[in-house]
Amino acid sequence: MNEELLPKHFDFKEAEGRIYQRWLDKGYFKANPNPDKPPFCVVIPPPNVTGILHMGHILDETPQDVITRWHRMRGYEALWIPGTDHAGIATQHVVIKQLAQQGIDYHDLSREEFINKVWEWKKEKGGIIINQLKRLGCSCDWDRERFTMDEGFIRAVLTAFKQLYDKGLVYRGKRMINWCTHDLTALATDEVEHKAKKSNLWHLRYPVVGTEEHLVVATTRPETMLGDTAIAVNPKDERYTHLHGKRVKLPLTDREIPIILDEYVDMEFGTGLVKVTPAHDPNDYEMGLTHDLPQIQVIGEDGTMTEAAGPEYAGLERFACRKKVVADLEEQGYLEKIEPYKHSVGCCYRCGNVVEPMISDQWFVKMKPLIEPALEAVRENRIRVEPESERNDFFTWAEDIRDWCISRQLWWGHRIPVFTCKDCGKEWVSVEGADTCPDCQSKQIEQDPDVLDTWFSSWLWPFGTLGWPEKTPELDYFYPTTWLLSGRDILFFWDMRMIMAGLEFMGDIPFHTLFLHGIARDAKGIKLSKSLGNSPDPLLLLDEYGADAIRFGMNSRYPMGRQDIRLSKELYLSGRSLVTKLWNASRLLLMNLPEDGIRFDSSSMEPQRVEDQWILHELNETIQKVDRAFENSDFEQAAEITRHFFWDSFCDWYLELIKPRLAKEETRPEALSWALYTLRRIVQLFHPIVPFVTEELWQKMNELGVADEAERDEDRESITISRWPVVRESFTNEKSRQTIDALITLVTSVRELRSFLQISPKLPLELALHFANDEAHTAFDAYRDRLADIGFVEGLTVQQDAAIPAGFVPVVFSQGTGFVRIPADVDLGEILGRTENKLAKTEKEVISLTKRLENPNFVQKADPDTVAQTRDFLEKATRAVKTLSDMAALIREVKG
């Protein structure tokens, strides 16, 4: 064999770029409407245009590529649509920062000038992540790459807004919203991340007017008391019945505020009293509307206190004001006490800044009319949610759904297409833009300055990427898309909104299957985070291990639903080991090829040898199991099933069994034909997960003259467009499996006995067998010689009954009973002593771990990962006790 054609090692650094470029040059990833093929379509969750590849992207994009490649090989017109999101807040801040480094204050630029700067940045830097995804091996149709700010998508966004506006589902109103004082923009409820923070609970004294009494109210935000307009009590709370209709003096001010009655107040919480600040708390806002309370805004949009806070506090930053308010309350005798308190604080999902609830004039989408059809689609399983256990989250979320605030106070994004005439006051929406009032023909036209929430564009992604609102052939053929992958963290940001948008604008669901996955953690179970420094650079990992190794490692532990994945060096090493094993096994067979290669026609061949029949039977079952795993989006199972068949069945057993045939010239061609036929199917089964090494092996086999006449020319051209392996009923052969499984079980049992009794693997053992029937005896006879090689057994005898011969111990043998003679020089007493000592230690470990898990303080207070790890240790220790007990019993029996 030419060493240059198939070197000893797979050089992924040289091969990956070359192979990927060939795929692109040949156009294998392109997809178009094709009436002769069933469609398969996936849209990529669009990464931010500001982004670079991180481990979360690998977690997202790898299975999308796997499922797309699988469908492409199965004969589907497989389209994976790539693209990026304009990421309004994030991109605007990146450009602002870049301008500042150049000495430019963006406030000195006009809106148009700033947007031009963003487009310049996008042209220079915005494509980085796309090239990085290509390095991962993503088989997207790059000719169809979309951007949420490209011309076609802008039209889609504006059309969607107009349709909702015309139906009364979009409205402008002054309502309580979440405001980021850092980014100076409104946020939707879903864009607020609640984080546990250590703080204090300040107990404030409110004097009751006309009495000597005071009321104590606890708050986590004492600075907002400057905007209080009432104290609320539950009308059923008998402690405060005498206060009904009275007023209290608001500390630090000259105002008096009423005591109101509202059943919203929880009598059991705190003192049973609530300070009401309608302008700065969502619940207080609703209570204020009910009781017609004033709305006094004491915190401004920039996070500083307003004039309404009073002259001593106006202009102070809100947290600086908190310190001064607390100091003044204490000085004037209004501070009862301070308690340490840990509570949930709303933060901006982009910058992490503490969000400020405030009343603001914004644009909203009415959600309830849109959510009901979406919930019905999930409820009726028109959209299949995987894992199924995640379906309930849709209904839980919908219970408290609020209207969606969609306006953002930014320059970069889709500007709201609402126009107002300054002369006659007419308001209208136009997709095309406007310069003249349609009523009075005035030229004094003003467009709303705000832009739309980024998610308002991405909720249109499944059909906007296919050309909507135009009626394109792609939209007709590929919509609804087939499958969508999403992290659970954007289930409500994106997934649910896409379902609503699909049903509203297309009249149909956006995808048939929604697969939800968990998150990536480090080896200690901590969520990956740039700030913590525990998130590795995937580009460095790709440099060190190669794309295939990273992809296989990720798929082999893929987190479904609420499961998470712990990323570690061991995971990547397992992927590299798989790639190396696949290369070496292929090289072993190809080294046996004659110089002119080998040709065979698998469609007309019938296996005659039992080991060939067995491996083909196992291949059939593997194909079925892998297909079932992919159909259920179970990537971990698909990877493990394929690995097990290749590594355990094919390499460890089949190649060992055919070695004598490969060594002889007269039996080599038949053995090679079946081995290479199986290897080619294995390489195809692995291809969706490890595309580079499998393509390289496919091409090397072609170059070395491996030719199966049953394959098409396209099959040989590239593995990525080859036909996916199918089950061949003629290869189903239970008897061959029973025979080879019996051999494997026997050899494995003998090896385990060696390990138990610490017998050298080089010391031959005498073996006696009793067969259950003559058929089993005949079938097994062909492998007597192989037992000596793979089991290191000699002196095999067959006995007529199942009685245990003197000096022998039983071993597992599925076609009868097996016995092994214990060598005379094995010191059973010494082995028994060590075994019993180890058993005693392990039993103590089980008792200790059991007590720990029975302790409610440990289970409730310890980190969940530590509890899970403890349970895992207990399970392993319990199994070890059983193994050691069985071992000790066996040794005692033999020892007599």
What does this structure look like?
This protein has 896 residues and is α/β, with parallel strands linked by helices. Helices cover 44% and strands 18% of the residues. The longest helix is centred in the C-terminal third of the chain and has 32 residues, at 864-895. The model has no long low-confidence stretch (mean pLDDT 91).
Calculate the mean pLDDT score and round it.
91
| Share of helix, binned | 40-55%
Report the major sheet. Answer: 4 strands, antiparallel
Count of runs of 4 or more consecutive helical residues: 28
The main sheet orders its strands as 6-5-14-16
- Would you tell me the structural class of the helices and strands? alpha/beta
For the CA atoms, what is the radius of gyration?
35 Å
Low-confidence stretches: none
Q: What gross morphology would you assign?
A: globular
Tell me the fraction of residues in β-strands, as a range: 15-25%
Note the quaternary state here. Answer: single chain
In total, how many beta strands? 31
Distance between the termini: 57 Å
What are its keywords?
single chain, globular, 896 residues, four-stranded mixed β-sheet
Chain-wise SSE layout:
Layout: H1 12-26, E1 39-43, H2 55-73, E2 77-81, E3 83-84, H3 88-101, H4 111-125, H5 128-136, E4 146-147, H6 151-166, E5 170-180, E6 185-187, E7 192-207, E8 214-219, E9 230-233, E10 247-249, E11 256-261, E12 273-276, H7 282-291, H8 318-331, E13 335-348, E14 356-365, H9 368-379, E15 384-386, H10 392-399, E16 404-405, E17 407-408, E18 418-421, E19 427-429, E20 445-447, E21 451-452, H11 454-458, H12 461-464, H13 473-478, E22 481-487, H14 491-506, E23 511-517, E24 520-521, H15 538-545, H16 547-555, E25 565-566, H17 569-590, E26 598-600, H18 610-631, H19 635-663, H20 668-686, H21 691-703, E27 706-708, H22 713-717, H23 734-757, E28 765-771, H24 774-781, H25 784-790, E29 793-798, E30 808-811, E31 816-821, H26 828-854, H27 856-861, H28 864-895
